[in-house]
Write a structure and sequence with these properties.
This protein has 234 residues and is α/β, with parallel strands linked by helices. It contains 6 helices and 7 strands, in the order αααβαβαββαβββ. Helix 1 packs across helix 5 and helix 2 runs antiparallel to helix 5. The longest helix has 51 residues. 28% of the residues are buried. The protein binds S-adenosylmethionine (SAM). S-adenosylmethionine binds next to strand 2.
Length: 234
């Protein structure tokens, strides 16, 4: 059988090949850029973590921590993954921008009063303050462990924005956004703390609470995000 080569068909074939080649090239460029961005992110993450480790290993802080009595029902400082925290801030920023309760004549949303419960040596607050991902009017933190507060002041220059305080008795009513990642290891203690926290939060304020015990069953809160860590007090 003789094969008939239709010239129109071979024109079509070579134009498809050309289009595919240029798409492959574009994808290769995107992959190469993503891999560089990933390396940049990894380097910045390592720098942030190293700074925090140095803060905790500073002689005065390390010495004070040695003699600190830790509550057996509470967690010691176990920091959230830097990227997880950054992604939460990006999500929160988008939610606030879309929330009419926070609308503002000049900015994307009204700058928020932010609190971190159990802020440890202050790395997350430093990220909030310097990262430019969130519009904030105050970014404050409390921790029950005094040497952590000292480290936050010395390393991140957080001064009076961090102080020693107890999450169980704190007044949360003046904050727009509260970040609390599991201060208590004991589930009864954590549950009591969560109930009191939500009780004291002002209506319309946001709660970011990974690893919580009760928030998805709490009728005073409505879940807002795909990550399932951000709620709004209703
Ligand atoms: C699991 S770590 C979370 C640290 C940080 N918020 C994060 O997510 O990266 C718990 C923190 O809560 C603090 N903490 C424990 N009990 C507390 C209490 N009663 N009041 C305030 N902070 C407390 C601990 O000292 C520790 O820094």
């Amino acid at each position: 059988m003789v094969e008939i080569q239709d010239p129109r068909f071979s024109d079509y074939e070579s134009s498809v090949e050309l289009a595919l080649d240029s798409e492959i090239q574009a994808l290769e460029q995107i992959a190469s850029s993503l891999s560089k961005i990933e390396r940049v992110a990894q380097a910045l993450e390592r720098v942030l973590v190293a700074t925090e480790v140095e803060a905790l290993q500073a002689p005065s802080v390390a010495k004070a921590l040695e003699t600190t009595e830790f509550d057996p029902n509470a967690y010691d400082y176990i920091p959230i993954d830097v990227r997880e925290f950054l992604l939460i801030l990006i999500e929160l920023d988008a939610l606030l921008a879309a929330d009419s309760d926070y609308s503002h004549g000049q900015f994307r949303y009204r700058p928020v009063r932010f609190l971190e419960v159990g802020c440890g040596p202050g790395r997350n607050l430093f990220i909030v303050r310097k990262g430019g991902l969130l519009l904030w009017s105050a970014a404050e933190g409390i921790d029950i462990v005094g040497p952590y507060v000292d480290a936050a002041r010395e390393t991140y220059n957080l001064g009076g924005s961090v102080w020693q305080d107890d999450a169980r008795t704190f007044d949360y009513s003046t904050y727009d956004v509260i970040f609390s990642r599991r201060p208590f290891s004991d589930s009864v203690e954590q549950t009591e703390f969560e109930n009191n926290l939500v009780n004291k939060m002002k209506i319309g304020s946001y709660l970011i609470a990974p690893l919580n015990e009760t928030h998805d069953r709490d009728s005073r809160l409505v879940g807002l995000d795909d990550l399932q860590v951000i709620w709004k007090r209703i």
